[in-house]
Here is the input.
Amino acid sequence: MRETRLWSWHLLVIPIIIVLLGLHFAVMHYAPVFYGISVEKAREFETMIERGKSVTQLVLYILLLAAALYHGLYGLRGIIRELPMSPALGKIVDYSVIGLGLFIFAFGTYVTWWTYSFKIGG
Amino acid sequence: MNSKPTSHNNRLGLRGWVYAGKYTFERYLYLAHRLTGMGLIAYMILHIIETANRMRGVEAWQGLMGLFASWPFKIIEYLLFAAAVFHALNGVRLMMTELGFFLGKPKEPVYPYSSSIKRHRPLTYIIMALAGLIIILGGSSLFFP
Here is the structure.
């Protein structure tokens, strides 16, 4: 049951990733097509900070971070666990993947929060 | 029946990814799905670390963005885009399969056999053609803005 639940989450986060990653691509990589500004302008420090100070962006980026990390690391864990290994090593893989995911999530959230709380000219 | 996994369950290991008899087109898509997935998660972790460079100030950020504007990085960025598009669209196909869509109704196994994979294949070709089209169009706007 636990594995079924984890697998269901792996599938359920897909629509979130598609929508939010699509938005991320549109803002950062296809700015000339969707926003009429150059990619260089979209990637300028001031533009990035200005975007990052929006609550919507803060929430959406943390949501994308959580969804993409879960989907990716669950997939990676499945690939590794499929290889021949002892149950003890399997447990180590599980805990390592969880640890890596939590660390990257905490770090990414901190960077997003740093951008949100950045004081322009301060 | 002993359902506990043993070390013999996947005796081919990584070799089995590439060849273990006659693999179908879908099996190679599955392999590409894994490879692009691993590439994307590796890139995502690196991407989070490199964009944290903003905390080192304007110069560090602009220097990094200048590096990304160079041709080698543009090509890497495009490959990542292509991997993401392929992984997403093939994932949609896998989800449809998982949920039982476009597999046809179960039939008696009478020769010549009509497998669910064959019934699903036209959709596979359509989705892969769509992925190819998006990858080409994405490249045209990335390289020729």
